[in-house]
## 1
Amino acid sequence: MTRSLSFFPILLLALLSAVVASLQIGSDLSLSRQLAIVTGTQAEEFADIMFSYAQLPRLVMALMVGAMLGLVGSLMQQLTQNALTSPLTLGTSSGAWLALIIVNVWFPELVGDHSALAAMAGAMLSLFLVIFIAGPKNMTGLPLVLSGMVVNILLGSVASAIILLNAEYAKNVFIWGAGDLTQNGWESVQWLLPRLSVSLLLLVFAPRILTLMRLGHQGAAARGLNVVPAFIVLMAVGLWLVAASITVVGVISFIGLLTPNIARALGARTPRFELTMSALLGALLLVVTDAAAQLLSQLTVDAIPSGTTAAAIGAPALLWFSRRKMKAQDQVSIKLPPSRDRLSALSLPALMLIVAGILCLTAVFVTDGHSWHVALPTAYQWELRWPRMLTALSAGVGLAIAGTVLQRLIYNPLASPDILGISAGATFALVGASVFLGMNIFAVGSVLAFAGSMLVLVVLLVLGRRHQFAPSSLILIGIALTALIDALVQFALAKGTQDSYSILTWLAGSTYRVTEGKAVFLFVGVAALFVFTLSTSRWLTLISAGRQFAAARGLNVPVSSALLLGTVALLCALVTATMGPVAFVGLLAPHMAVMLGAKQAKEQLLVASLVGAVVMLIADWVGQTVLFPAQIAAGTLVSVIGGSYFLFLLIRGRSR
């Protein structure tokens, strides 16, 4: 306690210095003139007005929101006894974001008065979903964070689909996703301030409850605390504060994750001191982050939202946290559903017939929006359909192979190109080239995507080796990279140009804009890598039995692993560069293959590739027809299907 008290004056001095420095950015006023305006002097010149109605309210907003995010982050981490809990990792930010999009698109008359309530409802719904998936006993372990990540992907996919289907109504929500503190007066501050007043109740009543909860559920109950209602009430108050803040400034990640950990590192040991120090650190961190965003905006043509800079700072911090030693309960164990002992001789022919049948169905079974009918496509219709069919087929096969190789190489049934961030690396490279270099995202080559995937693979290998590629370490890396890329994407969308919609369409994982040349290139590339992987299936078989065993049998394990990992990166790059990121196929297809009895490496590769093709072809065809003439991207539907399957695995693992 003494150590934490000694840091309070330093924190206050640092916060005051940050406030003064922030007010000097882009202002022509002297410090004395600024002080005079703050103390009540009437604004006269244009510079005075800009200071009074733009800079000051922006600073106050940063202080308020930063303090609330830090306070709620500390509250959530103390309630769950989990240093990785935050509105970001619990999926509550995505729930609030989705609710705001729904209100803006379908209930615009409620936006003015009920946006905060809608965001609160979305955040609460996502939180209860995460707790149900992880289970009350896993609140202190990684399963809670993992469940939040999957819920984030699911809700994000639904939100993207709604925006794409209702683009004309959803333009004004883009800036929310980027997290922007820009103000044009004091109206937002006046609206938010009374809604944050409940935070005072937290500071008064929460410390005693949190102190009792540190004794454990049984110890707290023995001392008269009704644990479950107390948990729900405190979490609801915290979510209200987050929802109100998101309603005004949008999604700002990582503040609530970082500040409680910093507070504990500085010596905060009691609940009251941790809450207070986290609030101060949150205000300081967001003011500094916003100042950095303003400075970068002056150096560049585009205004950079504060949420983007917060993610750029927070993602490396989360990577650093991932290197820390995990607790025993953080080593996630997943068991697949019951499977056959061996692969039936009819399985491969049956899957091939299913793929052929879906291809025929896609070609001739169409709808005009009112009825379904069978019709041979005209030459023009065939030119439109076959590139999409070939792309979906190739993408499903490629991602299935990548997932199978990854799971066998690092002995991790949760390994998947999207969950581990490998696909995100390709996405980061392509979106970054579009945003910062002005390239057309549909024209950027696969080489750039391959470089992004390889960079992520290197990070995974370097950071994951310390924990023997445990699920906990690798998944946290994937979460950090995904959050960073989401911030970059939201920055691109917040610019409000036509490129924003192009990027969003591409991110949904659609075959809509794939040309004939790209479809053929993807097919040839995936086919070549498929043949290479099958020819090296013996490597996978030996490595799956153990690296020492493989080396004893004469296999050069480092070279073989490097070649196979490079194959994974190249497959992800080809698919991502052609149709955008597609989630969960690399997780779903290998699991389905094992459940069908494909236990050997070559069998699993063959069966998984066919399963991946079936999933992608069905998703692409359903997306084209179910809401005709509107279309849902195949990647969105696959995210919903694969995410639901992943949640099933988590729930099943908890029940066991």
## 2
Amino acid sequence: MRPERHGSVASARGLTERGVALRLSEWLSGIRPRTWRGFGIHVLIFVVVAALFTGFWALNNRPVSAPDWPERISGFTYSPYRLGENPRKGRYPTEAELREDLVQMSQWTDRIRIYTVQGSQAEVPRLAEELGLRVTLGVWISDDLERNERELQKAIELTRTYRSIERVVVGNESIYRLDVTFDELVAYLDRVRAAVTVPVTTSEQWHVWREIPQLAEHVDLISSHVLPYWEDVPRQAAPGYVLERVGLLREMFPDKPLLLGEVGWPSGGGVRRGAVPSVVDQAVFLRTMVNLLNQHGYDYFVIEAYDQPWKDSIEGAAGPYWGVFNAFRQQKFNFAGPVVAIPQWRSLALASALLSLVTLVLLLIDGSALRQRGRTFLTVTAYCFSTALVWIGHDYSQRYIHGFGTLVSGLLLLSTFGVLVVLLTEAHELAEAVWVPKRRREFIPVRTDRAYRPKVSVHVPCYNEPPEMVRQTLNALAAMDYPDYEVLVIDNNTKDPAVWKPIEAHCARLGKRFRFFHVAPLAGFKGGALNYLIPHTAPDAEVIAVIDSDYRVERDWLKHMVPHFADPRIAVVQSPQDYRDQDESAFKRLCFSEYQGFFHIGMVTRNDRDAIIQHGTMTMTRRTVLEELGWAEWCICEDAELGLRVFEKGYSAAYAHQSYGKGLMPDTLVDYKKQRFRWAYGAVQIIKQHAAMLLWGGRSELTAGQRYHFLAGWLPWIADGLNLFYTFGALVWSAVMVVAPHRVAPPMLIFTIPPLGLFLFKVGKILFLYRRAVGVDFRGALAAALAGTALSHTIAKAVVYGFFTSTLPFIRTPKNADRHGLWVALSEAQEELVLLVLLLGATAGVYAVHGLTSRGLWFWELQLLVLSLPHLATVVMAVLSSQGQQQRRARLPLESRSVPAGH
């Protein structure tokens, strides 16, 4: 019969609407002065943190002085394409759009330079003439000879037709790009000079004129580009650099007029050594530069009037951002007064404050047990999360995302948000593990002789297990100090009688309390075997306990833990999994350290909100509940799935922090990986099956706190799954950076910093939390970090498989496996080894081609190295696993060595 669920359970479970309302009512009623004082202190801390982060916004947006933009400048280079328009795809601006641009530019100059007469740009000279603008007409010269001919003919025709054309530029960096030879370009120049009456030239970077001075013999003036950004010159030194190069050209060609064909600075893109592309740097450079050029009387064109989003495919990350106006024809920086990086930073600071307040309320909605230090930590965390989110959102809004990049960047943005959410949940667990002075639901061993002690049926499932190991498990069960219990042992599907017959005989020797079942065939794996035993359980047994066949329980296990069932609300009582073979090898010591975190940190904090994960050994379930729900035979993690359904039905669970039994850890890396693969795959199965109830509650009796812990607990594994795609994407991106270095820059920092932050936080959390909550030293915490990180790829694969498949065979974790050497161990990590080599190769390749010339490259190289660390950890674990096998074989008795392979 289902135990009665009293109305007081809801408040005991934590995150419930009633509990929140009661707590809020207490705060507002003034009944608890200490609560008011604590609330006041927290408000003060929030204000202090808000002031610090607002100072951060202010510090990064300090006004920078620069000369005001002059009333008139010499000219703008003009490419007319707006967002969505692209000459390479035949998408040209309309005449109305061209006219609108020319009217806007005429407010600041009476001269423009265009680069081609292709498409609708052939209309620019006519429109310019109507508006009184003068045009430097460009003839685009490339390796396409037919197009060159069309451009030349059209340019000659337009020059002869419109008086607005004051000069013709044949080719733009054509020699620098190696599109034509010197002789070919000279032929084009001589042909145009003979056909028109205006001055004719070609435009090249300044060093091309220095290296090929004979080019000047075929032009009427020298048109040179000086772009300090591309030459890695810091913005502070850039104006002097430009004037120095212009002076050099004047000295070289004193008899030729000089035109500075392009001078400018981008507002976005990758950092090149000290050259930083930003709105502030662009504004300060241009406002300084045009004033200096005006003072010296130079002819020049600012590159460029408008941002050109389509140029990202030919000029890389900085290509779209050279405009004084953005692609929407809005002024990118103020022309007078101090320059500020983000003029609306105060609004963004306010937005981050409001978002952090909402985030903090969610984090502390059931945080009454937290010490002030924990609340302060979460306040800072909430502000970091909110500030990062606002900053990323603003930075993303300033980018031109179009075409396939919309999908890619959208996915990256979504994954970045997911990374920040995982960071938030990890920080929340850390705070609740360290800064809670007393657990809210603490279940301690019941040692009184008058305690509630009903009959217990202990179920031991076996499959292909070493007989000697199982005999030790049964002997420990036989020695328990408990008045009334039975032990049911089931061996399902083991084919070799030499494996299961000795266990049957040993059960007979232990007496009538022990019953043995061998069933073959039996479907449903472990869940099927446990379901088989339920109807064979003694009719008067009220509690069913389950242990794995390798566990040696302590005498007092049932005596101390079963009395918790006296509370009719309790349906599950759970003790930690623990292990006894950690001293066998360095490999097992690392595994042991890693296991400790879940059972002594995660389960402890989850128990406060009645949200533990039921794991398949050292677990007890009220018989009536188990008969009602049964073990799920479709799920390879039938234990965790049952525990969730227990909560969905409104039952409660108890978790005791004390260990009452110890088993064996996997002996080899492959078995360690198989075990974690099963856990992660099963978690995804459960999420898919129970998604509606986990997300919305539905008709279940899950509390908000229980839903939070189940979802937050599995989020890091899902993040590992997404990280697998990120890794492959990083390898592809790096390969393209190596193959096409001038076209592809490192990803934006908003997509690299959050994953780096998550990795560093997780490692730091392990090193800090294991020492504080588990009580291990720094070496033990480092071991846990190494072993846990080594499983990242395995978990990632399990998550991906879990979302795209419905079932996989049950994967047993073999114990006392007898194998293997170094090469076999390395073969078990072959996927990680391949990925490690690829990532290190990508790191070396990007460095060889790009060096560390920008902040973006530094972060990208660091990201590649960080992505390689989990795979390196797996290889290290493989080596340690092989060493442990050699040591163990030397110690084990012959009977324990040879074990048939499990599945």
## 3
Amino acid sequence: MGRKLWLHKVMGAASLLALATAGAAHGQVVEELVVTAQKRVENVQDVPIAISAFSANALQERAVGNVAQLSNLAPNVTLDGGTPFSGSPSVLSAYVRGIGSDDFAFNIDPGVGIYVDGVYLARTVGANQDLLDVERIEILKGPQGTLFGRNTIGGAISIVTREPGDTFKFKGDVTTGSHKLMQARGSADLPLAEGLSSSITFGIKSRQGYVERIPYPDARARNTTSYTAFPSSGYDTASHEGGENSWNLRGKLKWKGELTKVVLSADYTREDGGGLANTLLATTEMVPGNFAGTSNLPGTAFDPTGTTGFLFAGLYNFCIGATPAQIAARNAQALCGVRGTQYSPGLRVASLAGVNVDADPTNDRLPFDSRFVSKDIDKSYATGNSFSNMVNWGVGGTVEHSLTDDVTVKSITAYRKLLWKSGTDADGSPLNIGQLSFNMKQWQISQELQLLGSALDKKLNYVLGGYYFKEKGSLHDYVTFDEGLLQVDGPNQLETKNYAAFGQVDWRPSELIGVTIGGRYTKEEKLFEGGQQDLNGFNYKLFGCSDANGNIRPNGAFPLAPISCQVGLSYPDPSNPVRVYAPGVNKQTFSNFSPKVGVQLHPADDLMTYVSWSKGYKTGGWTTRLTNPQLTAQPFGEEVATTWEAGFKSKLLDRRLQLNGSVFQTEYDGIQLNFQQGTSPTIRNAGDAKIKGVELEAVAVPLEGLTINASVGYLRARYTDVLAGVLAVSGPNVFQAGTFVGAPLPKTPEWKINLSPRYAFKLANGGSVTAIADWTYTSSIWNNAQRTYVLKRPAVQVVNASVAYADPDGAWSVTVGGTNLTDKRYLTTGNENIAAGAVFGTYSRPREAYVRLGVTF
């Protein structure tokens, strides 16, 4: 789309809103909204940062229940609940202006920082927060490294929960709806004494999944090895995928004296759901590979040409359908034999060799192919794991003390703990082609000190601060591919320490001009130890170092050289012959200075223009999901983003039209992207990119009772450099458009347009009716870095609407609404695993209706 066309769209939207507002009633103006984007309370219109902010009322009226549901309301923002193969909707995939992260692994940090009451959430697991008793949400766009720190390279999402009130009050609601939805929420303010108050908030939600599991109509399905025969973080299953079952609790205690305010808080979330919905999209068992070919290296089952053999799914099909003679001709007796090794005798599984061609028809097995690709995206033949269990809790304290009328010191202290298990049957079949499960344990502690002040008759405002953060934990991967031909058992340990000092000064030397200067210095140390192992010892079996009974010979003669099998295959740990990750603790140290410089012009009271230059970064780590032996750990480095931005904020037509806009350009270097290398999704610094964009957000009050929110976002995000090694594994082929110079970045639509009218009016009895609609257009998105064709998200228009009635006293209300009213379905996440034989993904929720009863007293 040409530049002239998108410019016409942006200017046309602004002109229509201005014309519509010209005849507005004189008594109604755009609502004021305060934010803390610069660590102090300010009107959002006075902050020289592009911010999409939402009040508590706006969130409830639009049925926004978690962070991901904000995606349609904010330009140049993509938020999805769930990442590839995570199996959990509580994992947040967040991208702002083309920068973010689409993973949950412990070794990968987010690119958009999530904060709750000023406390950073280090993991994407649990970041798709249930928005319980929220006062407002601020989405800050562009690098926020100066005031928010590392891993806010794309932006920051700040969730501010409500503080206890000084008088008793209760507000709650009960909602029922499609897929057996049942939700109850409530919040009570409980004053305790003069200056001392408390609040308690709860939420309970259950909903049946929208993907139904159905039995595959073939008796051979019963002969599949049970998924419980292979290691996993758990063995829970479900009749429907995509269900929810959670409850939340938050308590606060506030004491306010003459000079000091103290707020103590505690929150607890428990999730016990049916796991992320999954749909098998395509199978790739026909792709040739290196296993059991007809041109194998002597003494092995390895075909170096990769043309006459199989990959894992094709190998499974060959093993069950080939005669003993055919298997022997390809030297595949060990590959098709007993799965497992002598090092885990309790995990051995019987041989697959020739079961479909022997004399016993009762042991026949289903092959894996496209027969399991369901014609209905909401039906699945899966029988294995489907669960997401999470406990996420934290305690914190915020202390503010006024040293003078113009100087305040603020302390934010927090401790959080996360326990998470999930499991998903990715292959959509009764077979164990892709059984994935995970177990994460993490804790973090953080301390931030701020000195906030003003001088020169409030013409100069400043914030100085220090920050300490530490987290420690583990992530254990359990992945079974292709009936156990590959069995990944991957324990990982990680520890991070972070220290930072920051400051920002905002000076208004005259009524016309303002200047912003700030910076943050960060020092970080990361420790990591990976323990991945393949419990089937596949490489030993592939290279003639094992027998058909699963007994490997690590010290035996390597067929291709006069060395032992373990040395020849580069297995790194003599004490554990099946371990593929190099033993030992790995260390990386990062240091960074993230500056910001800005200039603002204030030509009128309700008009500000600004220009800013800022930098941000995201720390590096290690690639962990490896299935081939590695003698050393594979690190990846940090990302860096540098952004120029020019924008304006305005209120026009007697404050009946609020119009904000910005243009920006970002140089994005060292991009960490997830690429499929065989069965292993690996992280690399893929290259560099240039991102250009425009945003326009408007709020108009054209008539008494009518408010129109509208936004337009345009992004052009393209690679300017791609590493040769990345091109080798992710270039164009029959399955994918590939990654190369000039290709677009993942999770980055070119256009996003939203229009949200709200009309409220009084009835004769004193009650009120509020009608709301949301229409969002999002252009097509590539869901992964390789740009897999079947995972591409098409351009889509989504419509939500609701009508609410409130009684004359405001004591109760009833809301009837619906989401995705036109039932547009699109993939929110997915994964291409050609080697394993499956491409799978998660579709957006279907059309759903709800009824909510709210009470206040």
